[in-house]
Amino acid sequence: MGLLKGVDFLGGFLLISLLVNSVMGIGVNWGTQATHPLPPATVVKMLRDNGIQKVKLFDADTTILNALRNSGIQVMVGIPNDMLSSLASGVNVAENWVSKNVSYLVSNGVDIRYVAVGNEPFLSTYNGSFLQTTFPALQNVQSALIKAGLGNQVKVTIPLNADVYGSSSDKPSDGDFRPDIHDLMIAIVKFLSDNGGPFTVNIYPFISLHNDPNFPVDFAFFDGYSAAINDNGKIYQNVFDANHDTLVWALQKNGFGNLPVIVGEIGWPTDGDKSATVQFAQRFNQGFMSRYNAGTGTPMRPGSMDVYLFSLIDEDHKSIQPGNFERHWGLFYFDGTPKYQLNLGTNSNGLVAASNVHYLARQWCVLSPSANLEDPQLAPSVSYACENGDCTSLGYGTSCANLDARGNISYAFNSYYQIENQLESACKFPNLSVLTNQDPSLGDCKFRIMIQTDSPANLGGGVGHLEKPVGLMLLLFVILFMFL
C-alpha cells in the first residue's frame, strides 16, 4: 500500500531482553510548542494520575526532565533535527551532549531508556536535508553512551515516518524500504540490530484519510472493514495493521525479521479539518486502546506492542503547513482538560484532568456590535490577529464552522488577546474590538480563556515538522472570504 522476519536465537534473545527491560504500559508524546504550556510538574502529575508509564520528548528540556525525576515514568529523550549536523561532526560533540542530557540526569533519578536521534529526518518534504548527517549522528551518540557506561541501559533509535517504506501493491507482503534511501535504511537497521536498538515508526491513519478523498473511512478505524485485504491468508481490516506489517515485511526480507518495533506516534486530531473531529478521535483512539490492552498486535506481530500515543496536549504554536489539524492532536486541551472519554486501561473512570490549573480573568475580546464589516481596517486587523494568534478552529469542517462573519472575527480577536495574556493593548483594534464578560462560545466552538504561566512560552522544541508557523496566509484568505 502507498501508506503502507526469519527468526534466529540471537534476535529472539535481544527481543526478549528489550521487553524484560522496558515497561509495556502505554506511552505518550509530550510536545512543547505551546504559547502557554502547563508547568512540567503539573504534567508529570497528570501522567501519573492517568497511569501513563512512558513519555517521549522531542528535545532535552532540562525543566521537563528534572520534573520527571523519581516519577516512575520511563523517558525517550529526543534530539531535534537541527542538531544532527553538529552531532555528526565528531564524537566529542555527542559525548558532551550525552554527559549533560543523559548521564547527569540518569544519575539523578531520571529513567531515560532511549535517545531518539532526530525526528522523521527522512521525510520526502525535507528534500534530503538530513540524509548525510542522521546515521553518523546515531553512531556518535551510541559511542558516547557506551563510553559513559550506559550502552546497556539506554538505547538509540530514530523515529521515522512511515514514508520510509511502502508496498508495490495493496499487500503488506510486498513491502520494502523506499528505493532512494534503501541502502541507507539497511545500514541503519543493521546498526540498530547490532546495538539492541528498536526501529521506531510513526503511523497515522488520519493522514491516509486526509490525503486521499477516495480512502475508505472505515479502513482507518478498528471496528471492521468489509473489503478486508487478504494477504496470503493474513487478513487486514484496518490501515494501521497493514501499514505496520508492511514495515515488518520490509525488515524481514532484508534479514532483520526480529528487530523490535516501537510505534513512536499514533493518534487522531480533533479540529482543523473535516475529518479531525472529537467523535472520530474518540473512535480511533478507543479502538486502538482496546486492541492494545487486549494484546492483539498485528497479523505479522501478534501480541503486546510498544506504543506512544500522539499526543498528550494540544500545541497552539506548531507549524500548520501540513494542515490546520497539526495544533489539535492532544488527548487533552491546552489546559489539561480531557477532550473525550477514553479508557487507557489504567483508569476505569477515563482520563484525569490536570489539577490546580489557573486561568486568566474571565473576559473576552470580541468584535464591537457597532463595528462596520465594510471598515477598511477590518481585513488587516483579522490578518494580524490570526498571524499572531491561532485561527485553526475556523473554516470548513472545523469546530467553529457554524460561526457567522462577526463570530469569525470575534474568534480571531479573542485568540490574539488571550495569547497576549489579555494585555489591554491586545484588544485595541481600531473602532472594531471591545471587551466582554459574556462568554461568546457557541455550541462546540469554544472561545478559550488562556491559562496563567510562570515562565515565557517554550517555543524552541516540540513536535512540529517545521521550526516556525507557516501557511497562515491561505487560512486568512479563507476566513476573509467567508466574511464577504
UniProtKB/TrEMBL annotation:
<keyword id="KW-0732">Signal</keyword>
<dbReference type="InterPro" id="IPR017853">
    <property type="entry name" value="GH"/>
</dbReference>
<keyword id="KW-1003">Cell membrane</keyword>
<keyword id="KW-0325">Glycoprotein</keyword>
<keyword id="KW-0378">Hydrolase</keyword>
<dbReference type="GO" id="GO:0098552">
    <property type="term" value="C:side of membrane"/>
</dbReference>
<keyword id="KW-0326">Glycosidase</keyword>
<dbReference type="Pfam" id="PF07983">
    <property type="entry name" value="X8"/>
</dbReference>
<dbReference type="GO" id="GO:0006952">
    <property type="term" value="P:defense response"/>
</dbReference>
<feature type="domain" description="X8">
    <location>
        <begin position="363"/>
        <end position="447"/>
    </location>
</feature>
<dbReference type="GO" id="GO:0005886">
    <property type="term" value="C:plasma membrane"/>
</dbReference>
<comment type="similarity">
    <text>Belongs to the glycosyl hydrolase 17 family.</text>
</comment>
<protein>
    <recommendedName>
        <fullName>glucan endo-1,3-beta-D-glucosidase</fullName>
        <ecNumber>3.2.1.39</ecNumber>
    </recommendedName>
</protein>
<keyword id="KW-0449">Lipoprotein</keyword>
<dbReference type="InterPro" id="IPR012946">
    <property type="entry name" value="X8"/>
</dbReference>
<dbReference type="InterPro" id="IPR044965">
    <property type="entry name" value="Glyco_hydro_17_plant"/>
</dbReference>
<keyword id="KW-0611">Plant defense</keyword>
<keyword id="KW-0472">Membrane</keyword>
<dbReference type="Pfam" id="PF00332">
    <property type="entry name" value="Glyco_hydro_17"/>
</dbReference>
<keyword id="KW-1015">Disulfide bond</keyword>
<keyword id="KW-0336">GPI-anchor</keyword>
<dbReference type="InterPro" id="IPR000490">
    <property type="entry name" value="Glyco_hydro_17"/>
</dbReference>
<dbReference type="GO" id="GO:0042973">
    <property type="term" value="F:glucan endo-1,3-beta-D-glucosidase activity"/>
</dbReference>
<dbReference type="GO" id="GO:0005975">
    <property type="term" value="P:carbohydrate metabolic process"/>
</dbReference>
